[in-house]
Amino acid sequence: MPLADFEYHGAIVVVEMTTDEIVFVHPGAKTENEPAPLPASPCPPSESPRDCAVRIVREMTGLEVTIEGEFTTFIQEGTPTGTMYTHGYLARPTGGILAASGADGPVSRHRVGDLPPLIPVRAAVRRVLDEYLDLHDSVELRGGDHGDS
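^ thats the sequence. predicted structure below, dont judge the formating
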């Protein structure tokens, strides 16, 4: 499918608390042990995907972030709202406090080797997470010192 054949942009964000811990949200869940996606949302037409990524992380997690880069883009057909041009971003916190619960439910941080199950119908989130995990230790994804604590 040509990239011109999509109905809207969507942002999916991998927020690295450290190089080995990432953030998940648990929409509709009561605990952080239930299936979860990464912070993700359709982008309004008036907002760039990058700006949307920063906003949704703030709204869903309480964190202010800097986008380190866009590491994947692809067309995802069959979403509930149509065909999405998906933007996968890597972000790191610059402020705020990781909320116990955000706008979409509980928020959690998980070690890369011990991730929660994903919500099965979130195919675009699965693809972004898989691509992130494939790149996790690569120089291309890191782009320099991460300042882990």
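Helices lie at 49-61, 123-135, 139-142.
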